[in-house]
Write a sequence for this structure.
């Protein structure tokens, strides 16, 4: 039995036969979404870089990477076509710091903000829909 059924039974005990229109439906859960950041890693000559490690760190709204209050969203390695993809079912809003690195190259970091309006679809309750961010990155060969 879910909480809505329990509430209806309790109301019936007190003579209320139908749920009043101003009583919200009881829904419990954790906010979630389908979030993805993806892109292509190339070097400074335009060649695709395979096996580059890409790490995404999320910082709450108002926080920046200098605050050190972030959490790891995910890690990916670029494939033979330089493509990487980091996915998460966690709903969040805030700043994302994305870093790509590989031995023999200077690491590259880009920062971007994720807002609630970036998520499309969903029910508007616990399901916040989908958000896909495309971020290509360039690694410079070390000399």
């Amino acid at each position: 039995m879910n909480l809505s059924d329990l509430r209806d039974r309790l109301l019936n005990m007190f003579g209320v036969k139908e749920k009043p229109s101003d009583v919200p439906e009881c829904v419990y859960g954790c906010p979630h979404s389908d979030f993805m950041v993806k892109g292509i890693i190339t070097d400074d000559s335009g060649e695709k870089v395979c096996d580059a490690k890409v790490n995404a760190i999320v910082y709450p709204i108002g926080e920046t990477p200098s605050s050190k209050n972030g959490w790891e969203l995910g890690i990916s390695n670029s494939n033979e076509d330089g493509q990487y993809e980091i996915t998460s079912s966690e709903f969040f809003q805030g700043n994302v710091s994305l870093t790509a690195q590989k031995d023999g190259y200077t690491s590259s970091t880009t920062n971007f903000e994720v807002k609630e309006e970036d998520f499309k679809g969903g029910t508007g309750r616990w399901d916040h829909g989908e958000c896909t961010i495309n971020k290509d990155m360039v690694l410079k060969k070390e000399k």
The helical segments are 3-13. The first strand starts at residue 32 and ends at 43. Residues 3-13 form the longest helix (11 residues). The chain has a mean pLDDT of 85.
